[in-house]
């Protein structure tokens, strides 16, 4: 009998070697790969997300948990056809023009992946035109923008305006230390998330999941 609870616990504790070992053992025992992902790996990350939001876990622990979960997914992924990989939606994420901060943005990207989203991470210093080109290429459900500087946060507005001008039907959400719900409303964003766990909740809510 597969011990999903033990696998979830290893993810929560960020024990990468243990996650790999348990995942491999489940695969060898013939456990359904999707059950390994949903009931073990993602279930563990869901707990991490909730604890992080409540201030019971901190950034380094969350990063270790996400890395452990990703190591488990890597083992199971080849056994699942791409079309069957669980996905609740596609998110395009990037740090806006002029801004090189990426720790928080990468954390959000990892949590979104852990929450079952397909994530295209564009990186840092992404100009509005680059966001637009990426939307045209990848057809995401949501564009998530990160900014850590008061001087760069205004590029979120430019990006949303350009996306609208180009007639692209995609939701835009924003986050980062200087961003607030008021600012998000002011620039016409579809949502604001103060942290990575909230970003996952927001994306699910916007897509009705
Ligand atoms: Co910079 N920096 N920095 N910096 N830096 C800040 C942001 C600053 C507040 C420090 C300070 O002065 N107290 C300040 C900004 C002041 C302001 O504008 N109000 C500042 C400054 C001034 C600068 C430079 C201008 C310094 C200089 O050169 N004079 C320069 C700018 C470079 C540039 O971007 N063009 C600069 C450079 C750097 C480093 C390169 C050295 C480094 C970045 C390394 C990297 O990211 N790879 C750095 C760092 C590390 C910081 C601090 C110390 C930490 C940021 C961080 O990673 N936090 C920061 C001070 C601070 O915040 N204490 C500071 C941890 C991270 C997990 O949190 O990014 O907030 P955070 O992400 C959270 C949420 O905000 C949210 O979820 C995340 C997880 O919960 N979130 C989203 C983030 N993005 C989201 C997107 C979403 C949703 C939620 O999408 C919807």
UniProtKB/TrEMBL annotation:
It holds the Pfam family B12-binding. PROSITE patterns: B12_BINDING, B12_BINDING_NTER. SMART domains: B12-binding_2. GO terms for molecular function: cobalamin binding; metal ion binding; methionine synthase activity. SUPFAM superfamilies: Cobalamin (vitamin B12)-binding domain, Methionine synthase domain. Coiled coil: none annotated. Residues 1-88 form the B12-binding N-terminal domain. Belongs to the methylamine corrinoid protein family. This is Methyltransferase. It comes from Formimonas warabiya.
